[in-house]
């Protein structure tokens, strides 16, 4: 069969909503795009543990501490599911982690912003997880089977994250003046970076068209961003807080909220590594991995010893 | 024309990376092998594939599976198998494997028309 | 009454401080799977701490006719009021140190809670019963790691041996009775030593002999580390008194 025919069969399957499974023939570019996107997604979960992990030791009540730990732990789980999905495409986890640590692979820029107060835990849950969920719900129907299955599992767990974020802001919004100020300040700082999470505008995005055709992505950056703005603009009212955008206004003819221009200069700078925490996030991951090397080696050495002892016994 | 049809021999994991304990890749020296996890969600049901993970040995794989895949009481029993030990059919052979069953309609109970008076059948 | 309260607080403080220490591993573990594993143990410990604090809070509230909660007890008591074992507040050190401490502690906790389960105080007994299921898993997990590291590579063997030297002087405190304790802890020592020895044999480790034992935690005389642990833990409650979170 010619590559052209194989590609036709492949695209046919995609068009008919038949999932692509690991051993099916797929164009190399499809494989690569998926590896890149899934591993980026996995890295984001893992790096994303850091800004929130930052507040575990200082959580203001035992209940909040337990919730936060469980949440950060879930993110480790999500990273693990995603690395596993990418491994079915022929990329080992070690390789992907090496790429993250060398700076070759990217992760979501949002995690390069610092978490400065406790209210940031709520704002991250509500806005950052809220933005992530829109993307993730869409990805539950992505064309690559293992990725879609990982996303279904993740979405089930993720809805608790956004809810707990909003609920913890709700408590602050009903609290003392200091708490309300803390809440508004966190929303002010996280609003624009969350909008940036959806990526460049469709007119500037290089990967979007092919990804949509292959149904890796099923909605464009701008579509998802609009969906997010519409959702949050309503929810923020329940908190009695505001979003830091003077241009935010309901547009009756579009049936959507209009909103102001994102600071794309900041966006590209954070992507390029100039965000407030790019360096320390990566350093923390590299440190954990390097300090874990002897642990992983020891476990493997012991496993080998144990196996040879069992064999010796049998013989 | 260079046609690449990858043939993989087990499970969903490409042969060149599956069970990477034996890999000679330098970055894999400390990599733990990959395991597939199957979970029985409650008594009376089959074990179902839940996902994969890395572990140094079978015991650790079971415990990791417990910690990773049953945090929300998703299971009452766990199976693990090193990914490299799973053998699977190849999509290239899908037609000859699965198509021949499609015309054996007489294997299905609905093939047989019986009068309504026949009960319990 | 005050005896039960002090005993309950000691159990609560011990679980909380060890949980607080273990939680430092979250997002920094040696591999994802083990990051998740130790965090499960952390969550168990914090859950146990909360059960004990809630019980103590009920007792104190009734006694003093005040509205005391689990958070009052965890967040508004001072260094000298905390009764946790010293071993719980020590910095985590490396993975060897962390798993060995968990192993020492969990083995002791098992024996203690098996006694507590039989206690006439039904609330304490119920918490013990619930916790025992968790503790058994903690022992399984930590003992396997002790064996792996002891019998793994030369480096891991060195590291776990260092950990034994570091931590052993803090194990004596388990068995030194405090006047409020309702379990005769000294009687648990032999059994504890035996369970350590069984695992140490398999891990090719030896039990140190004639070591001077540190103590004081049970009576609120701590290492210098605890003040820093509490500073972080209690920070928000201290800065914003009376706020709800």
| Alpha-carbon Rg of chain C, integer | 18 Å
Distance between the termini of chain C: 30 Å
How would the global form of chain C be characterised? Answer: globular
| Rounded Rg of chain A | 22 Å
Can you say what the CATH homologous superfamily of chain C is?
Answer: Ferritin, core subunit, four-helix bundle
Q: What is the CATH class designation of chain C?
A: Mainly Alpha
Helical fraction of chain A = 55-70%
How much strand content do the residues of chain A show?
A: under 5%
* Biggest chain contact: A-C, 47 and 49 residues
Largest sheet report of chain A: 2 strands, antiparallel
Class of secondary structure makeup of chain A:
mainly alpha
Number of domains of chain C: 1
The topology string of helices and strands of chain A comes to HHHHHHHHHHEEHH
Explain how this protein is built.
The complex is a heterotrimer of chains A (315), B (121) and C (245). With 315 residues, chain A is mainly α. Chain A is 69% helix and 2% strand. Chain A has a two-stranded antiparallel sheet with strand order 1-2. Chain A is globular, with a radius of gyration of 22 Å. Helix content of chain B is 14%, strand content 17%. Chain B has helices at residues 58-69, 94-98; strands at 34-40, 47-54, 77-82. The model of chain B is unreliable at 1-9 and 18-28 (pLDDT under 50). By secondary structure, chain C is mainly alpha-helical. Chain C has a single domain (3-239), classed as Ferritin, core subunit, four-helix bundle (Ferritin), CATH 1.20.1260.10. Chain C has helices at 2-23, 32-64, 70-75, 86-89, 95-116, 122-150, 154-167, 189-202, 225-239. Chains A and C meet through helix 3, helix 4, helix 7 and helix 12 of A and helix 1, helix 2, helix 3, helix 6 and helix 7 of C.
Secondary-structure blueprint:
The complex is a heterotrimer of chains A (315), B (121) and C (245).
Chain A: H1 3-15, H2 28-47, H3 49-53, H4 62-87, H5 93-102, H6 119-139, H7 145-173, H8 177-196, H9 208-213, H10 221-239, E1 249-251, E2 256-258, H11 264-274, H12 278-314
Antiparallel strand pairs in A: 1-2
Helix pairs in contact in A: 2-4, 4-7, 6-7, 6-8, 6-10
Chain B: E1 34-40, E2 47-54, H1 58-69, E3 77-82, H2 94-98
Antiparallel strand pairs in B: 1-2, 1-3
Chain C: H1 2-23, H2 32-64, H3 70-75, H4 86-89, H5 95-116, H6 122-150, H7 154-167, H8 189-202, H9 225-239
């Amino acid at each position: 069969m010619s590559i052209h025919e194989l590609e036709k069969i492949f695209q046919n399957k995609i068009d008919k909503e038949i999932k692509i499974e690991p051993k099916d023939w797929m164009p190399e570019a499809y494989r690569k795009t998926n590896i890149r996107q899934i591993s980026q997604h996995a890295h984001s979960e893992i790096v994303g543990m850091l800004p929130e992990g930052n507040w575990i030791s200082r959580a203001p009540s035992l209940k909040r501490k337990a919730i936060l730990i469980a949440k950060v732990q879930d993110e480790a789980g999500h990273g693990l599911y995603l690395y596993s999905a990418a491994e079915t495409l022929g990329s080992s986890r070690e390789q992907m982690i090496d790429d993250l640590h060398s700076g070759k692979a990217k992760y979501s820029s949002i995690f390069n912003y610092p978490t400065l107060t406790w209210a940031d835990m709520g704002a991250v849950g509500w806005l950052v997880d809220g933005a992530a969920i829109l993307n993730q719900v869409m990805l539950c129907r992505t064309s690559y089977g293992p990725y879609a299955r990982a996303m279904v599992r993740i979405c089930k767990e993720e809805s608790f994250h956004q809810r707990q974020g909003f609920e913890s802001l709700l408590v602050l919004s009903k609290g003392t003046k200091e708490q309300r100020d803390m809440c508004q300040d966190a929303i002010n700082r996280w609003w624009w970076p969350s909008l940036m999470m959806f990526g460049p505008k469709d007119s500037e995005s290089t990967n979007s068209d092919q990804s949509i055709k292959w149904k890796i992505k099923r909605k464009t950056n701008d579509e998802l961003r609009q969906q997010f703005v519409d959702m949050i603009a309503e929810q923020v009212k329940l908190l009695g807080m505001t979003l830091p955008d003077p241009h935010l206004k309901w547009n009756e003819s579009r049936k959507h909220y209009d909103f102001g221009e994102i600071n794309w200069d900041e966006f590209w700078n954070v992507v390029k590594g100039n965000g407030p925490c790019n360096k320390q996030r990566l350093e923390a991951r590299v440190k954990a991995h390097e300090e874990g090397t002897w642990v992983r080696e020891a476990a493997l050495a012991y496993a080998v010893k144990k196996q040879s002892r069992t064999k010796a016994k049998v013989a | 024309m260079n046609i690449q049809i990858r043939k993989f021999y087990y499970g969903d994991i490409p042969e060149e990376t599956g069970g990477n304990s034996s890999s000679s890749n330098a970055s894999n020296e400390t990599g733990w092998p990959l395991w597939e996890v199957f979970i029985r969600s409650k008594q009376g049901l089959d074990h179902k594939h839940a996902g994969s993970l890395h572990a140094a040995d079978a015991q650790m794989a079971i415990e990791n599976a417990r910690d990773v895949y049953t945090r929300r009481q998703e299971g009452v029993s766990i199976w693990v198998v090193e990914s490299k030990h799973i053998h699977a059919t190849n999509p290239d052979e899908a037609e000859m494997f699965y198509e021949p069953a499609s015309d054996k309609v007489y294997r299905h109970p609905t093939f047989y028309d019986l009068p309504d008076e026949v009960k319990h059948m | 009454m005050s005896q039960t309260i002090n005993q309950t607080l000691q159990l609560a403080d011990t679980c909380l401080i060890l949980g607080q220490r273990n939680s430092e591993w979250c997002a920094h573990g040696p591999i994802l799977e083990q990051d998740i594993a130790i965090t499960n143990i952390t969550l168990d410990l914090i859950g146990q701490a909360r059960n004990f604090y809630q019980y103590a809070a009920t007792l104190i509230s009734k006694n003093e006719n005040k509205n005391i909660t689990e958070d009052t007890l965890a967040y508004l008591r001072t260094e000298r009021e905390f009764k946790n074992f010293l071993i719980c507040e020590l910095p985590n050190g490396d993975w060897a140190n962390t798993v060995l401490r968990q192993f020492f502690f969990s083995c002791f906790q098992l024996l203690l809670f098996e006694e507590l389960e039989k206690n006439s105080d039904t609330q304490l007994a119920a918490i013990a019963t619930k916790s025992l299921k968790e503790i058994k898993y903690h022992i399984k997990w930590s003992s396997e790691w002790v064996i792996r590291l002891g019998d793994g590579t030369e480096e891991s063997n060195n590291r776990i041996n260092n950990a034994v030297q570091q931590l052993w002087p803090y194990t004596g405190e388990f068995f030194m009775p405090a006047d409020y304790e309702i379990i005769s802890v000294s009687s648990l020592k032999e059994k504890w030593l035996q369970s350590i020895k069984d695992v140490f044999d398999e891990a090719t480790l030896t039990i140190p002999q004639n070591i001077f034992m540190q103590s004081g935690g049970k009576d609120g005389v701590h290492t210098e580390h605890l003040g820093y642990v509490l500073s972080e833990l209690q920070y928000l409650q201290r800065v914003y008194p009376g706020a709800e979170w």
